[in-house]
Write a structure and sequence with these properties.
With about 300 residues, the chain is of the alpha/beta class. The protein has nine helices and eleven strands. The protein has a six-stranded mixed sheet, sandwiched between helices. A three-stranded antiparallel sheet has the order 1-2-11. A two-stranded antiparallel ribbon has the order 3-10. α7 links the parallel β8 and β9. The radius of gyration is 33 Å and the shape is elongated.
């Protein structure tokens, strides 16, 4: 949604006195000897038309001084939403197939990439970042509103980039780090894993304390057959992180999980003053220049 506004609207107060002066103030008259008096009527008509053109020029100049701009409220920098970090398990077990539909040999990681990318593109009003974890965790994409870049970055990831094991505590802690500079009123980490915590220097308990300290909501998703991931741990982490635990045994259920998370409440992002403004004063000044040039030329021709 776009909106027209004037930066200096009070400049319009200059218009009435200027138009009044243009109408009432006398212009010094130069004497000319002209024998054909019957042309005077046409000259008076030209005078009235000339005054209208002058009034138009003055109005446009005052409008330019008021500085019209268009604000694009649909731009991501002028939005409502939450700051979200997708913390994705990239351990060796994510290379297992059989998570998709029958006959689909794509790995768990490839299916998660597609569903996570689709989720990102739906969240037009949010800032999103991506973390991948294995033996350790790293920020694959910092918090940003550039959804196309985030989706591309998710596509560039692969399992094993952070090692073969599953450091759930590291995955949560790195998500907290990615959100540390966020000014949003609502901050969320969505952690997805198909295994049990077995690596890293930060325990899940320590990581969830960091989540609570930063007032972040933690959603946890366990994927794969029941018994492969630590159901009790993920449920406890989500409960302590004021979020919710989900389990998905196939791609369809995982899609439903992300669809449910997509319905989360939204709140105003308190970011730095960053409004997309487009100035249009030059479009008012351009016709003024041509009007003045034409009036000058026409007046010289008449006089």
């Amino acid at each position: 949604m776009n909106s027209w506004v004037f930066i200096f609207p009070w400049m319009w107060l200059l218009l009435p006195p200027l138009l009044y002066c243009l109408y009432r103030c006398k212009v010094a008259i130069r004497q000319h000897y002209f024998p054909h008096l019957h042309f005077f009527t046409k000259l008076n008509k030209w005078r009235n038309f000339e005054w209208l053109l002058k009034a138009l020029a003055v109005t446009l100049m005052v409008g330019a001084l008021a500085t019209p701009i268009m604000i694009d409220y649909s731009d991501p920098r002028n939005r409502n939403g939450v700051d979200i970090v997708l913390s994705i398990d990239g351990s060796g077990s994510m290379n297992a197939s059989g998570f998709g539909e029958e006959g689909n040999q794509a790995s768990r990681f490839e299916i998660v990439q597609k569903i996570a990318s689709d989720f990102v593109m739906k969240r037009a009003s949010d800032n999103i970042g991506v973390v991948e974890f294995g033996d350790f965790a790293f920020i694959a994409s910092p918090i940003t509103y550039e959804k196309e870049i985030i989706a591309q970055m998710i596509g560039y990831l692969s399992y094993g980039m952070a090692g073969q094991n599953t450091a759930i505590g590291e995955g949560i802690a790195m998500g907290v780090r990615a959100l540390r500079d966020s000014k949003a009123a609502s901050k969320v980490i969505i952690l997805l894993t198909d295994g049990e915590h077995n690596s890293g220097s930060i325990s899940p308990k320590e990581a969830v304390e960091m989540v609570k300290k930063e007032h972040i909501r933690l959603y946890t998703i366990g994927i794969g057959p029941k018994g492969e991931f630590d159901n009790a741990l993920l449920e406890q982490l989500a409960r302590d992180g004021s979020g919710k635990f989900f389990a998905a045994t196939n791609a369809k259920e995982l899609q439903e999980v992300y669809d449910e998370i997509d319905t989360m409440e939204r709140s105003r992002i308190k970011s730095a003053h960053n409004v997309l403004e487009e100035h249009y004063f030059q479009w008012l000044l351009a016709p003024v220049l041509f009007l003045l040039m034409w009036l000058t030329w026409r007046r010289r021709g008449v006089l």
